[in-house]
UniProtKB/TrEMBL annotation:
GO terms for molecular function: 4-hydroxy-tetrahydrodipicolinate reductase; NAD binding; NADP binding; oxidoreductase activity, acting on CH or CH2 groups, NAD or NADP as acceptor. Residues 109-245 form the Dihydrodipicolinate reductase C-terminal domain. It catalyses: (S)-2,3,4,5-tetrahydrodipicolinate + NAD(+) + H2O = (2S,4S)-4-hydroxy-2,3,4,5-tetrahydrodipicolinate + NADH + H(+); (S)-2,3,4,5-tetrahydrodipicolinate + NADP(+) + H2O = (2S,4S)-4-hydroxy-2,3,4,5-tetrahydrodipicolinate + NADPH + H(+). GO terms for biological process: diaminopimelate biosynthetic process; lysine biosynthetic process via diaminopimelate. Homotetramer. It comes from Herbihabitans rhizosphaerae. Belongs to the DapB family. The active site is at residues 133, 137. The lineage of its organism: Bacteria, Bacillati, Actinomycetota, Actinomycetes, Pseudonocardiales. SUPFAM superfamilies: Glyceraldehyde-3-phosphate dehydrogenase-like, C-terminal domain (SSF55347), NAD(P)-binding Rossmann-fold domains (SSF51735). InterPro entries: DapB_C, DapB_N, DapB_N_CS, DHDPR_bac, NAD(P)-bd_dom_sf. This is 4-hydroxy-tetrahydrodipicolinate reductase. Its EC number is 1.17.1.8.
Amino acid sequence: MIKVGVLGARGRMGAEVCRAVEAADGMDVVAALDVDDQRSSLVDSGTQVVVDFTHPNAVLDNVRFCVDNDIHCVVGTSGFDQSKLDTVRDWLAHKENVGVLVAPNFALGAVLCMRFAELAAKFYDTVEIVELHHNRKADAPSGTAAHTARLVAAARAEAGLGEVPDATTSTVDGARGAEVDGVRVHSVRLGGLVAHQEVLFGGQGETLTIRHDSLDRTSFMPGVVLGVRGIVDRPGLTVGLDKLLDL
Ligand SMILES: NC(=O)C1=CN([C@@H]2O[C@H](COP(=O)(O)OP(=O)(O)OC[C@H]3O[C@@H](n4cnc5c(N)ncnc54)[C@H](OP(=O)(O)O)[C@@H]3O)[C@@H](O)[C@H]2O)C=CC1
Ligand SMILES: O=C(O)C1=N[C@H](C(=O)O)C[C@H](O)C1
């Protein structure tokens, strides 16, 4: 039995994770903590894998605590840029047996959407991303959109494509979205939504739209459970659930 600790356990994702881990074979929730609880109970309960769905401002400190205490981590919380990933990698360099998985999105379709976008990127001059989420989300753009933009930008660079052409000379602040590695990302926040993303490519006389919709938070759970099972045998930093899938 893998002993699992959940951080953010009273949140939208954390509560779902507690249910999914309890329902899965070979793992148990031994600690379910939220914002005011003591992380020391992770150690006291013998937690082997922590699942973190908290807040972008809190997650790095939680990962530090886990690494220091030889606890593997499966991290869904958004807000991981390259410098935060490098920080985690540095911590892990001194810990041969600890693994941390940071996954911008645990939904299978979102993982495929990112991969398809990476594959399509070199064939199209222009690309923009639209992400749409519920209106209680703390951060914009979404971690998934930022990660997708970075993958697309890297694929464009590798193919020798330059900047995305844009003739805009007159605009209102924000009208053209945020820029992540040169890729425009537009964030929509609406009650009723869960998590949705479109990657739009434009070429000569055609467009390609790759869209993914999470209609319910259960969509993330098979990926989280896979992450918990996988991380115990994967020391070091793993970025993206795709590394645990046969993609
Ligand atoms: N990778 C993926 O597939 C997915 C990632 N996410 C990401 O997960 C994160 C959480 O999302 P969501 O569940 O919707 O958010 P919620 O606000 O519903 O849940 C977060 C919970 O964590 C608590 N919390 C905040 N800080 C800490 C802390 N230091 N220690 C323990 N608990 C803490 C919050 O308490 P309080 O409310 O009192 O602050 C809240 O109960 C976001 O970054 C989101 O983008 C979401 C869905 C899928
Ligand atoms: O806050 C959310 O809900 C989600 N957050 C993640 C993100 O920022 O990409 C993953 C998913 O989009 C849901």
